[in-house]
Structures
1.
Amino acid sequence: MFVPHKYTTLESKTQEEKKMKVKKGWLAVTVGLEDEEGELQRFVIPISYLYHPLFKRLLEKAQEVYGYHSTGPLRLPCSVDDFLHLRWRIERESNYHHHHSGSFSFHAC
């Protein structure tokens, strides 16, 4: 029985690999709960998120649930909707701080 490969040409494989690469200063994460319908979703986030207090709490929860050792993208134990809300809050705070000089910014120097 012939099973087709995911990539039919070298060119399409290269294009797919480019999509999977993460640019410098960014981090790939997977989000989703095991009891949710659907698959885990992959997001690419700026490394600056790692310094935000809300995201730090999520990282602590990930360590409790999954431990420190993992292969592939960092897995976050929250629903996709909760992650999108968290991302919105971080971006909103980041935009507010960047528009008000003298305000605290959580981005790394």
Note: Strands lie at 26-31, 41-46, 74-76.
2.
Amino acid sequence: MDLSQPADAPRNVTRKRQQLKARAVAGRHIDKALSTTPVSEEAKASRKAKLIDLPAGTPAKRRPA
């Protein structure tokens, strides 16, 4: 991880990958935790979106439904 460059620097690929992996793991943990709550799928997606900070420009297929 190159901490000398900002996370969104074009050449800081390693740090970007680590952040994407961390978001994916966090998403799985959130899905598991929300699976036991009796709320609608829309509410679950809304809560997940608030918990995971998605950067601007994230493709629609990567955003929670």
Note: The first helix runs from residue 13 to 34.
3.
Amino acid sequence: MSHHGWHVLGHELRRRRRPLLKVAAWSLAEALPSTASGALIARALDQGFLAHRPLTGCGYLAAFAVAMLIGALGTRQMFPHLAATVEPLRDQLVHRLVHATLVRSVAGLDGGADTSVSRLTGLAEHTRQLATTLLRTVRPAVFKIIAALAGVATLAPAIALIAMPPLLLALGASVLIMRAIARHQRTLLLTQETIAEEATTVVGALRDVIACAAEPRARARIDQAIDTQVRHTRRMARLTALRTVTMSLGFQLPLLALLAATGWLTRHHALTPGQIMGGLTYISAALVPAVSSLVSTVGSTGLELNVVLKRLSEATTLPDRADLPEMSPQDTSPGSAPAAAPRVLPSPNLKLHALTFAYGPHAKPVVNNLHLHVPHGDHLAIVGPSGIGKSTLAQLLTGTVTADSGEILLAGRSLADIPPCLARSTIALIPQEAYVFAGTLRENLTYLAPDATDADLDASADAVGLRTLAERLGGYDTLLGPEGPQLSSGERQLIALTRVHLSPAPVVILDEATCYLDPAAEARAEQAFATRQGTLIVIAHRITSAQRARRILLFSENGTTLGTHTQLLATSPLYTDLVGHWDTPHTPRPEPATA
């Protein structure tokens, strides 16, 4: 069993101790009919109807009816407290999963984002549903079993000695079967995650799959996982059927044994007919149904919950600090904020040696044998026709794509040997579509610089051109997101630009990160980064971006050319054509945001 997973669930449930105590209290009232049923039936027969006192017998039956009403009231009153116990469980588990996923992703230890999404959308809600079912079903069953055993032991211990052995045999056989089911259930859950991951990969690359005629290979990857799922589902179905037969036979044997031993019990143990009937009532109406419900629920919901909790334990276990050597010391408890900005490599130069990359083994290289030195503090613009490989170079420089050959050196160290968290804190990439998450404007601006003061925010906002937008939104504590103000694409870009300007990253790459801004706002933002300490690499959207740069790297079908604006105008027909294209008036992009 997953002890850590059950510990996580127990910890979250203990936080709801007050409603749990109320659930237990009303469960005692709910179990009252099981406690009193056999004893009241025995007295109704022995002291009432069989003694020719029908009013006395009816009185005991009326008392049993009152016990049933109290039990029904207990069930009704228990449910609001049960909801108060389990409903917050989903949010608490999602909090744990998000925190652990982010920590592992930042440390480069998470194997697949799609699997993480599958966990977030499935594990937390699945755990809540299973825990609800378990508490709703197992809880009354346990209370009824205790009540029935106490009633039988009080009424006639000999009946318990006859009824319990076949019941225990059925339970033992069910436990063995459930252990086999648990193994298949865990494999089934892992297979479902594999199917989600493989399907997401194939669908995301569908055009490439079709272009490369790789449909059979893609289908085979998913078919293999589906075949595994089908195989284990069938095995689980067979084992479940076997468990059902075992329980059905085992739970009828106590009644048959008690009926067969009735004569012996009355002769040798002087049991009255009322006691025999009371014992039958305890066994048939309370004990056997409760044990059957308990075994069925534990064998289905309980096993499934155990597998899910084991997966939950794996998903929420934080890596050891030894696995995070380059992360700054900080509190990793859920909900804590970073204590300090991440470390960066000081004054990093960028050197590319014979860098080559292609999108397939038979495809033409997008980057071919590129040699480039970008000293710290340089301002480089990258230009070229659309689709030529400019954004690919940005991905190579940030390590999100690995080169086929060659090497990238950052501060004299191979980029492949630098811990991902350190490389990401040293090189900041702003893509064309800016990322703004649900939270305050301050949180969006400072999550790369958690120690930033209001003065730092004001300085970066003024430099980049965000101040007017910040004031219009209502200040840095304005909530952004679905319920907040609607932002244009240009306004989102201003927020992303200010965020990186505020960060300690000494190398900044703008991958058409100002394309939704008007020319004046773009010039102001680029000037802010050019005067900021560090290196600026701009994948140019307009010719003015290239003109502002110290050097320009031109991508063409024949390779790359490095030079200044004046040098390339004199030596490169392609660059001259690009300048002419950029200088031609054209319709501006929608939703511009001005500084």
Note: The first strand starts at residue 350 and ends at 357.
4.
Amino acid sequence: MDVPVNTLHAQGYVSIGCEPCTRPVLPGQHEREGRWWWEDAKAKECGLHKGNIDKDAQAAAPRSANGNGSAGAPDIFESPAVVSLTRTGIENLLRLENRAEPWLVVLYAPWCPFCQAMEASYVELAEKLAGSGVKVAKFRADGEQKPFAQAELQLQSFPTVLLFPGRTARPIKYPSEKRDVDSLLAFVNSLR
């Protein structure tokens, strides 16, 4: 099992707190004594300080291709019919007031089970809309992109589907939890 272990365990510290928080446990004490959230003690096991994570393992961990999310989860919405937008690309799309064609964009996080659940229907929709004049795209909005997406793109939860119509500057947020092909297609066709 690849569970990160605090290096103080090897020195006789049974508590699994982080390095600045960990102290030896006296005989007869529970290993968490004085560290429960309801106890009024200064030493809490926050788990944030060095000693909990092996830096070599962290450096060797794979990073996402565009560097804006958590590593580990494979990317989703992979299809030639779905355009992958960068931060610059979505910012340019936001700035355009008269777009040549409407854009449907999903704001997603690859680790999100709801995004994963809608992947097949979104890819199918993209293939149906190919050649129709509507561009279908994705923008990974987790990690360092999340504050931007919350401030500029109406992101409150994953996935968020936005339509950038050709005639208006601001995107229109898809208002439903129904993410099947027919529902998404009706949304696009009503606002084209």
Note: The CA atoms of residues 33 and 144 lie 37 Å apart.
